[in-house]
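seq as requested:
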Amino acid sequence: MNPAPRPWLRPQRSDPADGLCGHAAVLRTHAVRLRAAAQLLDGREPQADAFRAEVAALADRCATAADGLAAVAAQLQQE
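struct tokens:
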């Protein structure tokens, strides 16, 4: 004899849009932190400038990815 199902023991599936929004928020936070860290770097030699440019580009990619995730989440919420 199988016991009755216990739905309170089953993990709740989260809304995919909520998960995407959460990931977007984390990526935006990373972008802000990267930009702040790049501004704090000392040094005026060419290597420091190149490193700051790479960090800024990475921050831009994080922000772009966050925008994309947020857009997909918005589409999912409309369905």
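The chain has a mean pLDDT of 85.
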